[in-house]
Amino acid sequence: MWQANHIHGLSSSCFGLGDKRPFFDFSEAWQLIINTSTTIITFLMVFLIQNAQNRDGVAIQAKLDELLRTSDALNSFIGIEQLSDKEICEIRDRCEAAAKKSDAELNKKRPESLLLLEKGETGLEASR
Questions:
Q1: Dihedral sign (CA 98, 80, 56, 41)
Q2: Distance (Å, rounded) from C-alpha 122 to C-alpha 112?
Q3: Which residues are CB-neighbours of 57 under 8 A, at least 6 positions away?
């Protein structure tokens, strides 16, 4: 696993190459070495960032699974990240439909004044 100390070592070696400019007499070889080393470091940094993001994603998924297990939510959502894209889209569509239905039910129960405030209407425009 790549860690920050690996990247620190690579970047310090790149800066160390910068001190060798007079040895290469500012030639094309020196530019080639610097360009190649910075490209390699950039490439390795991409792997480091992807590794960190993957670990973060796995940790978040484990936390969400634990929350689902301990709550009254449907346990059928546990492990859906392993489903196909089509199956995930179907689940998302069902969740969006349930959310719209829930919003509609809440809007029926709210007083008209709260609905106007949520829409940004205060009713003051009509009295002016």
A1: negative
A2: 11
A3: none
pTM value surpassing 0.85: no
Q: Structure tokens of 102?
A: 């829930």
Cα atoms in the Cβ-side hemisphere of radius 13 Å centred on 121: 10
End-to-end CA distance of the chain: 68
Neighbours of 120 (CB within 10 A): 6
Give kind and range of the element (H or E) at residue 61: helix 28-70
| Euclidean distance between CA atoms 33 and 21, whole angstroms | 10
CA dihedral (106, 110, 114, 115) in degrees, to 10, reads 60
* pLDDT tens for each residue of the chain, 128 residues long: 556 666 667 667 666 666 666 666 667 887 888 889 899 999 999 998 998 888 888 888 888 888 888 887 777 777 888 888 898 889 889 888 988 888 888 777 766 666 666 666 655 555 44
